Amino acid sequence: MSDTLLKVDDLNVTYPTRTGFTHAVRNASFTLGRERLGVVGESGSGKSTMGRALLGLLPRSARVTAKTLAYEGTDLLNLGERDWQHMRGRRMSMVMQDPKYSLNPVKTVGQQVSETCRLQLKSDGKDAKRRALAMLEAVQIRDPDLVYGFYPHQLSGGMGQRVMIAMMLVAEPDLLIADEPTSALDVTVQNEVLRILDDLVRERGMGLIMISHNLTMVSSFCDRVLIMYAGRIVEECRAADLHNARHPYTRALVAATPSLDARREELATVVRDPEWLK
Question: Considering the entire predicted model, what is its pTM?
C-alpha cells in the first residue's frame, strides 16, 4: 500500500475501575493509505474508542499506549493540546454518529461550518462564508444559501449528517474518520450519504476510516475491512474477500447477514468461543 497516512502498532486503551482496569482496545495494529478502510464489530467491541483515540478525543481517565501511533510521521502520542488543535480539522477529522448531539443547537449551520474555516484556514468572514457555501453545495444540499441560516433543529436527519460532513471536510483534511455516519438514516438517505463520501474521498485522494456495525454496507463500500471483537482486531481482509474469512467470528457475522438471494427460515446466531478473548 502506497502513500501511508496512518500507522498504528499495538494500540491499547484502558479505563480505571474500582476493581482494576477495563481494556477497551487491545493490541490493535493496522496502517491506512489513501483508501477506504472499514472497521466492523458489535456494539462495545471498541470501534468508536479506537477512532477517538486516533484523534486524541478520549477523556483524561483513559490510558492510551502504543508502540507506534503516527500520522504522516507525526507521533500522536506526544502531542500537546495546542498541537492537537492544529492536527484536528486541518489534517484529520471525524464525523460523529448523530448530528443532533454534535451540532451546536444555538448556532446556525453557517456559523458552525464557517467557524472551521476561520479557525483552521485563517479565513476572513467573507472567505469563510464562500467556502462554507461551496462545501454545503458539495455535499448536495439543494439550497445552501437557505440552509446556511438554519439552526440544527430545522434539519432532517439526512441533511444534518450532510452538514456534519461539510464541517469536517471544509478544512480539506487528508484523513476522515466516519463513526456510524448512516446508522440513524433510512436506506435511501443512507445511500446518498455514502455516495457523497465516496465522491469526496476519490476526488480529494483522502483516507477514510468507516466505523460501522453494518457488514453488508462496509463490504460493498470499503476497500479493506478490520473485524473487531472484545477490543481486538481479530481479522483483516479485502472487503471483496469477506465471504472467504478465516476467523470464526467473522464467518459467524457473515452467516448472520440477511440475504435477498437465499431464503432462510431463520438467521444464524453468533456462538462465541472463550478462546477468542485470549
Answer: 0.88
CA angle, 7 as apex, 220 and 49 as ends, to 5°? Answer: 70
| C-alpha triplet 37, 41, 46: angle, nearest 5° | 90
The closest of 58, 48, 57 to 14, measured between CA atoms, is: 58
Provide the CATH topology of domain 6-277. Answer: Rossmann fold (3.40.50)
Q: Tell me how far apart the alpha carbons of residues 204 and 227 are, in angstroms, rounded to a whole number.
A: 27
Question: Do the beta carbons of residue 230 and residue 276 sit within 8 Å?
Answer: yes
Q: At what angle do helices 157-169 and 187-204 cross, to 10 degrees?
A: 10
**Confidence at residue 260, expressed as pLDDT on a 0 to 100 scale:** 67
pLDDT of residue 184: 66
C-alpha distances out from residue 134 to 3, 99, 110, 121, 146, Å:
28, 20, 11, 15, 13
Contact between 76 and 56 under an 8 Å Cβ cutoff? The reply is yes
Total residue length of the chain: 278
Residue 2's pLDDT is what?
46
225 forms beta bridges with: 38, 237
Question: Residue 134: which of 182, 171, 85, 99 has the closest Cα?
Answer: 171
* Positions of the chain with pLDDT lower than 50, given as ranges: 1-2
Q: How far apart are CA 11 and CA 67, in angstroms?
A: 7
Give the separation between CA 67 and CA 160, rounded to whole angstroms: 38
Tens digits of per-residue pLDDT, 126-149?
Answer: 999 999 999 999 888 889 999 999
- Nearest-angstrom CA–CA distance, 266 and 15: 38
Task: Identify the pLDDT of residue 134.
Answer: 92
